[in-house]
């Protein structure tokens, strides 16, 4: 998906969305593991949409749901008392459609959608950066980066707020403020939010 995708497809003033954008190995999943419980304690129910660069399967060969999916069920939803899984084959798709995924999550009424990956999509992002990886800063090319979380924050000179990626309390505070201020932030994104 290119950055020319219409951001109004995913930005809604009633539901905050924040991407975590970073190069591989920066620690996106690790940070989410730390943020999610803290956000829950702050009363924020967070949905996560994660991009995978490779094929994956949550089903098991031989199970009824796998057999039905192989027979052509699309989508295939399996549910129990504890959880549900929706599997949808997408042959021929260039990449996952974030707008469709956001629309699928919205009826579940989370307080926040966190997006891991999908860094080419036009959505507000918190960039994660580790100087030791030797990678370029995304904030220098991506107007959607709203803040930078870095392991050497004092060395950064950028036009967005800089956070210490190792200061979990500061990271949580920033995300909580992001959720609280979302309606005005959404309006400020150059009219990109749908009415």
From TrEMBL:
InterPro entries: MGD_biosynthesis_adapter, MobB_dom, P-loop_NTPase. It comes from the Bacteria. GO terms for biological process: Mo-molybdopterin cofactor biosynthetic process. One of its GO terms (molecular function) is GTP binding. Residues 17-151 form the Molybdopterin-guanine dinucleotide biosynthesis protein B (MobB) domain. PANTHER family: MOLYBDOPTERIN-GUANINE DINUCLEOTIDE BIOSYNTHESIS ADAPTER PROTEIN, MOLYBDOPTERIN-GUANINE DINUCLEOTIDE BIOSYNTHESIS ADAPTER PROTEIN-RELATED. NCBIfam families: mobB. This is Molybdopterin-guanine dinucleotide biosynthesis protein B (MobB) domain-containing protein. The lineage of its organism: Bacteria, Pseudomonadati, Pseudomonadota, Gammaproteobacteria, Oceanospirillales.
